[in-house]
Structure formats: structure tokens, C-alpha cells
Amino acid sequence: MIPSTVIVVGSGLAGLTATIQLLGQRIPVLMLERFSHPGGNSIKASSGINGAPTPFQPIPNSDSVAAFHDDTVTSAGAPLVAASGAEKTRRQNLIETLVGQSSGAISWLADEQGIDLSRVAQLGGHSFARTHRGAGKKPPGYDIVSTLLGRVTGDELFRMETGRRVTKLLREAGGQVSGVEYTYVRDNETVVEKAYGPVVVASGGFAGDARGLLARYRPDLAGIPSTNDHREGTQPLLQEIGAAVVDMEHVQVHPTGFVDSKDPEAAVKILAAEALRGEGGILVRGDGRRFVNELEKRETVTHAMMEQAKEFPTTARQWDVNLVLDEGAAAALQMHLGFYTMKGLIRQTTVGELAEEIPLLHGALREYVDVVSEKTKDPFGRQSCGHWTLTEVLPESRVYVGKVTPVVHFTMGGVVINERSQVLDGQGQPIPGLWAAGEITGGLHGQNRLGGSSLLECVVFGRIAGDEAAAFYQGLDGQCLASS
Ligand SMILES: Cc1cc2nc3c(=O)[nH]c(=O)nc-3n(C[C@H](O)[C@H](O)[C@H](O)COP(=O)(O)OP(=O)(O)OC[C@H]3O[C@@H](n4cnc5c(N)ncnc54)[C@H](O)[C@@H]3O)c2cc1C
């Protein structure tokens, strides 16, 4: 029997991108999503998506694929350096594919899907401004996901079933993946059903799986708050049918999750987007001193926060750090600031009003404005001050401040894929009929993902996975995939 559809597991950016590629070739798609609402973590993305070179980058634009490649390799660090042979080649191919197709990914979103990506910020670990978002009021994750959802929902070849949790991948005797088993609740009963067809898995990472995969691979992170709601990782489902996993111990602890004064010990926190630092924001300790180049890689900033703030009292596993913006940085981030102030996470105040609460802030700001006006070099090596405009620090100088602490955020590890998004087994062989894209996959980012490169991997490898699954489906004519 010829399968009637390709199955896409997960309705985040990777799944939606693969779906658009499939529908573009008039191939039916069944999307299975475990939650009642689509969008996954993709819909929460707040800083943007990387691409180089693009027409939206500041002019003159000296950014290049080579520069983006070098930044990604530097950020990936030890796992890439230590790899050898076929594993090294595989990792290098993934990085080359990511950065080489980044410009095309931006134009696919902007030109073909009509998404505004005209604002560009420089995030940590990047040597150029290359993280794109829109100029309007919508955060980038919401804008991208809602636009793509709008594209697919009207298509007669597309069917999305929410509240469906995929629990098993089905495999034929020959080894080919032939479909999935999934569960859902109907009239208070758990129903188990099967769907048949080639499968693209785009079910995201495990940074929200505190009691499961995180506890297993990184027990030392227990108790550190997270930006991710509880959701169990799906890598084990693929391992059950022989897929290999890699880098599972590499978990990104993002430096800045907001501490909400109404619920300071909340286990799930709202992310303070990296764009806040990229557009000019600085980090100061509880007493007001700066202590790090805020545009260093995330792992470096997080480490500095945990080290520097040691001498201050911590609550549970949280650290006492303030994020401070001036009016210039705030103006570049109106959409973000509106949301964060509405939530009570950032407040507008003056340097004078903060004098008692953060005693050394005035001095730290005076030192920093000398860096901004290029009177001195930044002692921490910061090169770009974004849109910071404050040049004279007075008691009445207006600033925006919020408390932040490191948060578990993203998992670099996951199932092993090649540059064709094929899922590989322990011998490095593709498992026929199975592709994966997005945060479920591992090895691309090594020990540290650059901000903006996750949305990018969803688009780049989601498109590849969709095209590969389409070609496979079209070549299936006459083959028997399902036994029922
Ligand atoms: C607050 C926040 C801000 C971020 N900001 C940025 C940013 O600005 N730029 C950037 O590049 N990255 C950012 N990231 C990271 C990025 O958003 C994610 O890594 C990326 O969106 C993952 O996309 P995905 O499609 O792989 O998975 P998701 O978007 O997480 O989608 C996976 C979907 O699969 C579903 N699913 C899981 N298991 C099953 C199952 N068994 N059966 C059926 N469905 C299942 C989930 O419910 C989910 O809807 C941010 C992350 C967070 C949490």
C-alpha cells in the first residue's frame, strides 16, 4: 500500500518548514502535535534568526559566510575539536550547511513567506550584527510561526492533529520506518492509534525535561530555573529504533532569565532576550559593578555571573545580577520593553533613585559611557555598544532595570543527523524513511549554540528534511509501507 501522507511530528518552526516544502510539492502532510496549541518553543523566540550576508545587515556589510562559519566553529568548541574521522566530517558538514544556507533561509522567510526581518542585532559570540527580527510589534518567533501556520492551514493536503502524543516509531522488517504510534484522550479514555508514512521528527529539545533526560545527563543543573515548560524529550523514541544520539551532556544555561519580584523563586522564567544586551544593555552585579563582556558567548557570560555573584547571597540556585539599559537601547527594543514592563520584569527609573539599592551603579555607568564614547577601551573587551546613547551620567538620567539570573534554556545534544537531515544509526548509516530537524538533533552547535542559530537550523534543516522526505515519498510508488 502506498502511504497517503508524510508524517511530521511537532508543530514548531522545524516541523512547519518541512511541511511547507512537502506541500509545495503537493505531498499530503499529517502533522501530529502533543499540545493543544501549535508552535512549540519556536513561537516564544524573542531575539531573532541569523543569516549572513543579507540585504538587511548594516551597510557597509563586511559579514560573510566565512565569518559566520568561524564564529560557529569557535562557539562549538571542544566537541568539534576533539572529533575525528567521519564524525568530524559530519559535524563540519552540518556547520557548513547551516551557515552556507543562512542567507537563503532569510530570503525564504522574507521574500517567499513575507515576514519582516529588517532589524538586525549583534548577539554574543558573533563578530557582526546578523540576528534578524521584524521592526514591528510582533516578537520574531510569534511572527514567523503564525505566518507559516497561516500558510499551511488553508491547504487541503494538510491535516494537523493536536493533543496527539507520538509514543513509538514503527519499523518494517527491512528496517524502513513506516509510521508512528500515538495516543490521545477521548471521553476520558486514552486512545492508541497508528499512522503510516515516512516520518520527519521535529519534536524539539529536552531543556524542559528536568526529571527525565536532564536529570540523567546533567544532574548538576537540578534546581536551576528554566525558560522551558515541562516537556519530556523524544530522543529515546528514536533510540528505540536504533538512532544514535550525541552531545547529550551539552545543555545551554542562558545568562538572563527574568526574576519576577512577585514570584522570585519560580522554576520557569521568562527569558530576557539576548537582543537586550545586543542592542546595548549591560549586566551589573547586585552592588552595581560590571563584571563581563555582555556580548561574550552565552556559556562565558553565564559562568562569569555564577563566579562573580558568589560573594552575594543567592536564593535557591539563582544569582543576583541586574540588566540595565539606557534610553537609546530601550528605544531600539520598544516591542520587548513594552512586554517586559507590562509583566513587571523591567522598570523605568533614574540613576539617582537606584543609588541606595545598587550603590556602585553610578560609577559603573560613568566608566561605561567612556567606553561608548571611545575615550577608553572596555576593560572586558566589549566591541559593540549597540544603540546605547547615554554619554553623561546624572542622577536624573533615565535607565531601565530588571533582575536576571541564569536559566536552563536549550539542549545542544540530540539525535545524530547528516547534512541531508537523515537520522543515522550507531554505525553512521541512515535509517530509511526517517528525518529529523531542529532542536531534537545534536552535534551542530557543539558545546555552545550561538543566539539566533536555533531558528536558523529549523529553517535550513527543516527545508532539507521536507525536500528529502518528498523525494523519498515520490520514489515510493509501488512499495508496501503499511501492514494494516
Ligand atoms: C523563550 C525562548 C526564546 C528563544 N529565542 C530564540 C531566538 O530568538 N532565536 C533562536 O534562534 N532560538 C531561540 N530559542 C530557541 C528556539 O526557539 C528553539 O530551539 C527552536 O524554536 C526549536 O524549534 P523546533 O521546531 O525544533 O522545536 P519546538 O518549536 O519546540 O517544537 C517542537 C514541537 O514538538 C511537539 N512534541 C514534542 N514531543 C512530541 C511528541 N512525542 N508527539 C507529538 N508532538 C511532540 C512539542 O509539543 C512542540 O510543539 C528560544 C527558546 C526559548 C524557550
From TrEMBL:
<keyword id="KW-0274">FAD</keyword>
<feature type="domain" description="FAD-dependent oxidoreductase 2 FAD-binding">
    <location>
        <begin position="6"/>
        <end position="455"/>
    </location>
</feature>
<keyword id="KW-0285">Flavoprotein</keyword>
<protein>
    <recommendedName>
        <fullName>Fumarate reductase</fullName>
        <ecNumber>1.3.1.6</ecNumber>
    </recommendedName>
</protein>
<comment type="similarity">
    <text>Belongs to the FAD-dependent oxidoreductase 2 family. FRD/SDH subfamily.</text>
</comment>
<dbReference type="GO" id="GO:0016156">
    <property type="term" value="F:fumarate reductase (NADH) activity"/>
</dbReference>
<dbReference type="InterPro" id="IPR036188">
    <property type="entry name" value="FAD/NAD-bd_sf"/>
</dbReference>
<dbReference type="InterPro" id="IPR010960">
    <property type="entry name" value="Flavocytochrome_c"/>
</dbReference>
<dbReference type="InterPro" id="IPR027477">
    <property type="entry name" value="Succ_DH/fumarate_Rdtase_cat_sf"/>
</dbReference>
<dbReference type="GO" id="GO:0010181">
    <property type="term" value="F:FMN binding"/>
</dbReference>
<keyword id="KW-0560">Oxidoreductase</keyword>
<dbReference type="Pfam" id="PF00890">
    <property type="entry name" value="FAD_binding_2"/>
</dbReference>
<dbReference type="InterPro" id="IPR050315">
    <property type="entry name" value="FAD-oxidoreductase_2"/>
</dbReference>
<comment type="function">
    <text>Irreversibly catalyzes the reduction of fumarate to succinate.</text>
</comment>
<dbReference type="InterPro" id="IPR003953">
    <property type="entry name" value="FAD-dep_OxRdtase_2_FAD-bd"/>
</dbReference>
